[in-house]
Design a protein that fits this description.
By secondary structure, this protein is of the alpha+beta class. The protein is about 55% helix and about 15% strand. A hairpin with an 8-residue loop joins strand 5 and strand 6.
C-alpha cells in the first residue's frame, strides 16, 4: 500500500511540475496577446481618426478639414474589446448564438468589435474611391494644363512675331516721319525761293517805274511850249499806282471769307497800310497780289493756302477787299490765315 502511495505522490509531483511549466508558458502567451490587442486597439483608433466620414461643408474654404471617424471615446474603446454580441436578459448579459452556426456565439451585430471594424473598412473604401476619382481628375487636369501651357507657348511665339512686326511698322512710321520732315524742309526752301523771286519782281517793278519816270520827264521837256503844264499838279500814273514799295513779310490776316464768291476781307497792320496807300492814306491803292499761308502749330513749316489780288481798300479801318485767285488756291482760305508779301 505504501508503495502505491509513493508512486501516486511521484506522479502528482511530475504532473504539478508539468502544470507549472505550462502555466508559465501560457502566462507569456497571454501577456503577448494582451499587448498585441492593446496595440491593435490604439492603431485602429489612430487609423480611424484619418478616415473622413463626410464631405466638406458647402462653401468651405480650401484646406478645410472634414469630420473623421472617432473611436477614442470610452464607449468605443469598450466596444472594440467586445468580441461577441451580448444582450441583457433578466438583468444578465448573455452571449448570443450565431444564427447561421448555432454551435458558436455571434461576433456580428451592434455593440461588437466587428461593427466598428466594418465602419472603418467602409470609410476606407469610400476614401479610396474618392482618392481614385481625385487622381483621375488630377490626371485630366494635368493633361489640360499641359495643353494650356502648349497653347500659351504658341501664343507667346505669335506675340513675339507680332511684336517684331510692330517694331518693323514703327520703323516704317519713323522713316515716313523723317521723309515728311525732309519734305517740309524742302517746302520751306521753296517758300524762301518764292520770296526771293517776289523780291526780284519788286525790283523789276521799281526799275520799270524808274524808266517810266524818265520817259515822263522827257515828255515834259518836249512840251516847253506849254507853260501851263508847270502849274498843273502832278497826277499819279497807273504805273505809279501799281508800284508797291513795301518790304517782304507779313502784312495782315484774313478776317472774313466768302468761298462761294471767291473773295476775302484782309485786316492790314498800320505799317502795311502806310506802305500800301501812304501815311496820310491819300495814295491810290496799287493792284497787287499777295500770298496767304496758314501757320502750322505742330511743325515749324507753314502751309501755303492761296494767292489773292487786292481790289478795294477801306482806308480808315485798315481793311482791304481782295479776290481769291483760283489758279493758285491750294485749299480753303480760313479766318486768321496770314497774308504776306
Amino acid at each position: 500500500m505504501g508503495t502505491v502511495l509513493r508512486v501516486l505522490v511521484v506522479i502528482i509531483l511530475i504532473m504539478s511540475g508539468a502544470a507549472l511549466f505550462l502555466a508559465h508558458q501560457l502566462y507569456d502567451k497571454r501577456e503577448q496577446l494582451i499587448l498585441r490587442t492593446h496595440l491593435l486597439e490604439e492603431q485602429i483608433q489612430k487609423v480611424a481618426g484619418t478616415l473622413e466620414v463626410a464631405d466638406p461643408a458647402a462653401g468651405a474654404k480650401p484646406g478645410a478639414t472634414c469630420p473623421t471617424l472617432k473611436l477614442d471615446t470610452d464607449e468605443k474603446r469598450r466596444q472594440i474589446r467586445q468580441l461577441y454580441q451580448v444582450k441583457t436578459v433578466n438583468g444578465k448579459q448573455e452571449k448570443q448564438k450565431d444564427p447561421v452556426n448555432p454551435a458558436e456565439y455571434s461576433t456580428k451585430g451592434p455593440g461588437t468589435m466587428r461593427e466598428l471594424l466594418d465602419q472603418v473598412l467602409d470609410c476606407a473604401v469610400k476614401q479610396r474611391d474618392a482618392l481614385t476619382k481625385t487622381r483621375d481628375e488630377a490626371l485630366k487636369l494635368n493633361t489640360k494644363l499641359s495643353e494650356t501651357v502648349a497653347e500659351c507657348n504658341k501664343a507667346k511665339q505669335e506675340s513675339q512675331a507680332d511684336k517684331a512686326a510692330l517694331e518693323d511698322k514703327n520703323k516704317e512710321v519713323d522713316k515716313l516721319k523723317d521723309d515728311s520732315k525732309a519734305l517740309e524742309s524742302k517746302l520751306t526752301g521753296l517758300s524762301d525761293e518764292k520770296k526771293k523771286l517776289a523780291d526780284e519782281v519788286a525790283d523789276l517793278k521799281k526799275d520799270i517805274e524808274t524808266k517810266l519816270a524818265s520817259i515822263t520827264d522827257l515828255e515834259k521837256k518836249s512840251k516847253e511850249k506849254r507853260p501851263e503844264a508847270l502849274k498843273t499838279p502832278e497826277k499819279v500814273t497807273v504805273a505809279q499806282a501799281e508800284a508797291f514799295q513795301g518790304a517782304p513779310g507779313d502784312k495782315g490776316k484774313i478776317v472774313a471769307v466768302d468761298d462761294s464768291l471767291k473773295f476775302v476781307v484782309v485786316e492790314l497792320s498800320a505799317a502795311a497800310m502806310a506802305e500800301l496807300v501812304g501815311e496820310q492814306r491819300d495814295r491810290p491803292m496799287p493792284q497787287i497780289d499777295m500770298m496767304v499761308r496758314r501757320p502750322d502749330i505742330k511743325t515749324a513749316a507753314d502751309k501755303f493756302v492761296a494767292r489773292i489780288k487786292f481790289r478795294q481798300v477801306v482806308r480808315q479801318k485798315n481793311l482791304v477787299v481782295a479776290d481769291i485767285l483760283m489758279d493758285w488756291q491750294q485749299g480753303p482760305v480760313e479766318i486768321n490765315d496770314v497774308v504776306f508779301f
